[in-house]
Write a structure and sequence with these properties.
Elements: E1 2-10, E2 16-25, E3 30-34, H1 41-48, E4 56-61, E5 64-65, H2 71-78, E6 81-84, H3 96-106, H4 111-124, H5 140-152, E7 158-162, H6 170-185, E8 189-193, H7 197-202, E9 206-211, E10 214-218, E11 229-231
Parallel strand pairs: 3-8, 3-9, 6-7, 7-8
Antiparallel strand pairs: 1-2, 1-4, 4-5, 9-10, 10-11
Helix pairs in contact: 3-4, 3-5
Length: 234
């Protein structure tokens, strides 16, 4: 699904933010991405959703070297990736319904199917009564749920989420995590950046830990309470 080989990233002439990152994510896997502030989580996420090219090294996605793809080919790959940004990035002139429907309209789904699929998902995330509301009239938590619904509406092959439960109460956060788990069981590869240790303990998936520009894999804790930390590849 995703392969990073000796990847480095720097901004301008500054020091490397990510240094010699090397890992593989298998299809259908679920990982939390964690680490201290400034460790490079946002930078790594930008590489994963192809928002930025690495300074050095190789990034492969869906079996293709992204450094050798045309703009059109990169666009096609991005259509297989759902992204939930921390700042939501909703279109303020469009209703909540139309924000969520946008990816389906881009791929040419019929309006009948769009109405059925979007309404069903909006009910699931608790926004059934907010279909025609503009983003700036919604609370922060409601805007976050719109962003999440938009990211998952096409059932992407890869789902990336940056602190998706940060503005939600515990009950709403658990509902969304259950949605991510359900998508994962259907085959979607999921990577969630989070600082929420309680959430990561409740959903014992593998962790990608960033520390000083390096990636460390932490396996879920077995029933004995022991944890195995493995440097390098997954």
């Amino acid at each position: 699904m995703i392969k990073f080989e000796h990847v480095g990233l720097r901004y301008g002439v500054g020091p490397e933010i990510l240094s010699d990152v090397h890992f593989t994510l298998e299809p259908g896997s679920f990982h939390f991405l964690s680490g201290p502030s400034g460790a490079g989580k946002t930078s790594l996420m930008s590489l994963l959703y192809l928002g930025r090219h690495p300074t050095r090294g190789l990034v492969s996605m869906f079996g293709q070297n992204t450094g050798q793809l045309s703009r059109e080919q990169l666009t096609k790959i991005r259509q297989s990736i759902g992204v939930v940004f921390q700042d939501f990035r909703l279109l303020n002139h469009m209703s909540a319904f139309d924000n969520i429907a946008l990816p389906l309209r881009i791929i040419g789904q019929s309006e009948k199917e769009i109405k059925e699929n979007v309404n069903e998902l909006m009910e699931w995330v608790g926004l059934g009564d907010h279909r025609q509301m503009l983003p700036n009239t919604l609370s922060g938590g409601q805007q976050q749920r719109v962003a999440i619904a938009r990211a998952v509406i096409t059932r992407p092959r890869l789902l990336l989420a940056d602190e998706p439960t940060g503005n939600l109460d515990d009950e709403s956060g658990l509902r969304l995590m259950n949605l991510f788990d359900q998508l994962n069981r259907m085959g979607t590869t999921v990577v969630i950046a989070s600082h929420n240790t309680a959430l990561m303990e409740r959903f014992p998936h593998k962790k990608l830990l960033l520390d000083k520009g390096q990636v460390l894999l932490e396996e879920p804790a077995p029933k004995t309470g022991l944890r195995e930390k493995i440097m390098g590849r997954l």
